Amino acid sequence: MQPMPKTLKILNGVTAVLLLVALCLVFLYAPREAIMGDVQRVFYFHVSAGWVGGLAFLVTAVAGVIYLIRRQSRWDLLAVASVEIGIVFTFINIASGSIWARPAWNTWWTWDPRLVTATIMELLYVAYLMLRQGIDDPDRRARFGSVYGLAAFLSVPITFLSIRFFRTIHPVVIGSNDPSAQGAFDMTPRMLQAFLFSLLTFTFVYVTLVWHRVRLGRLAEQVEQRKMEMLTA
Amino acid sequence: MMLQEVTPDTFGYMLFGYGVILGTMALFVLSLVNRFRNLRKDLELLEEIKHSGAKTENS
Amino acid sequence: MAERAGAVLRAGSPSALSGYLKAVGAVIWKDLTSELRSRELLGSMLVFALLVILIFNFALELDIRTRQSVTSGVLWVTFAFAGTLGLNRSMAVERERGCLDGLLLAPVDRSALFFGKALGNLLFMLIVAAIILPVYSLLYNANLFLPALAGVIVLGSIGYATVGTLFSAMAVQARTRDILLPILLFPVVLPLLIAAVRATDSILLAIPLAEIRGWFNLLIVYDLLFIAVAIMTFDFVVEE
């Protein structure tokens, strides 16, 4: 295993600092929202986690396609690494949203398009991992993962659209706002700054984690290789 | 919602929310560290077996 | 069987298109003749579908009022479950008898094999639907013989068979194959099922077609998108 590259070490530090600053902005800098109270602060990391989830699955789909064209295992390592992180952050997104919804909508769960789509997305990629788990041959595993990762990613927007045909109560904070949405609020400049900073921070968190996870995958590959060498020697 | 004049106290929910967010992230990082450690141990073990020349007995 | 189909493929005329169509036809023909001989696939799909309807009858107490609101859901859940059963079986047979390997040796575009398998699966789904619909109408005294409904069923089945064939070709090569297919398939076909159920619902409530065109568009977009995905990726799924 190669020692940790210098860039990654720096990235670790930068990400940690960014995360601390983001927390300060969220808790101390951003004002308390008048109608919902403190729980509105969940919004900053909730949306950021959702962004990381979507980004991670996009990276998986793209890395899968590149793998199918180039057949280099590192693209497959990136695809799995990204799925794992996507699953973790989509879970954070759903769980934190649910906690916010309890006081804001007076329920932990509603059948809103975004909630359902996020949950379906989570299930899609759990299925992706299960598919990979059932296949021993690494080349085939990578090929099937790439195909499923692409199909799954393409189905997400259609799922969202199809559920969207039902009325939604989820607030649209950015862009046009449906007056029937509950728990909507207008962002003050300070809120917007905290929000954008959280997005940036989470993007850094994603890159850092993916990098570490790819290195983990490479290490696992090496261990596998050594084992095979021992058995055939 | 319009009729509410005092801001409701939702501090507990906020703590709970950030607990889950940061807790899940910490758990994932821990799992990464753990998996790294296990793999390194495996690798060391494999090296050891290789050098002690005991591969015939072990395979 | 595989040898024969392979021979047909190899003997294809120099004209690319007719050779391609012949290959597609050969795969469908192979599935149909083996099904005619054994009758295990359609038979089990049909019995299974009827059992699902029977279970729904008691689970939901399909009296006249609830029936109106759940008919479309019951029908599509039945099709989806029977469909998975058929998809699993159809690919498992290829694997057991090594038919696919024989076909893969043929000098023909792999997507022809895909279309052959997918059309075969589509045909089986439509046959099941063609038998289930009159039975359901008879049992519950509801008129399901509507051309628009037939359109929804065809569009829904096309998407289901396309994605299902692609995924079942992957699932049969995994260790947990029988349970894996529905897990892979259901989250991806969810939008298709939603659109199909809502369209069916609207048709049964006699809502004018112009108002449900959105659902039809969604079905068509889904079908086209996943046919394209399947053509592009099927090569990688059957590659050795």
Query: What structural class results from the helix and strand content of chain A?
Result: mainly alpha
| Subunit arrangement of the protein | heterotrimer
Compute the number of strand runs of chain A: 0
The first-to-last residue Cα distance of chain A is 22 Å
Strand content of chain A: under 5%
Pick out the low-confidence regions of chain B. Answer: none
What class do helices, strands and sheet pairing of chain B give? Answer: mainly alpha
Radius of gyration of chain B: 25 Å
- Listing every helix as H and every strand as E from the N terminus to the C terminus, the arrangement of chain A reads HHHHHH
Please explain how this structure is put together:
Helix content of chain A is 76%, strand content 0%. Chain A has six helices and no strands. Chain A has helices spanning 6-29, 42-70, 73-105, 113-133, 138-164, 189-232. With 59 residues, chain B is an all-alpha fold. Helix content of chain B is 78%, strand content 0%. Chain B has two helices and no strands. The longest helix of chain B is centred in the middle third of the chain and has 42 residues, at 11-52. Chain B starts with 10 loop residues before the first helix and ends with a helix. By secondary structure, chain C is mainly alpha-helical. Chain C has one domain (2-238). Chain C is built from nine helices and no strands. The longest helix of chain C has 34 residues, at 64-97. Chain C is globular. The two termini of chain C are 21 Å apart. The model of chain C is unreliable at 1-13 (pLDDT under 50). Chains in contact: A-B, A-C. The A-B interface holds A 1, 32-42, 45-46, 49, 85, 88, 91-92, 95-96, 99-100, 102-103, 182, 205, 209, 212-213, 216, 219-220, 222-223, 226-227, 230-231, 233 and B 1, 4, 7-11, 13-14, 16-18, 20-21, 24-25, 28-29, 32, 35-36, 39-40, 42-43, 46, 49-50, 55, 58-59.
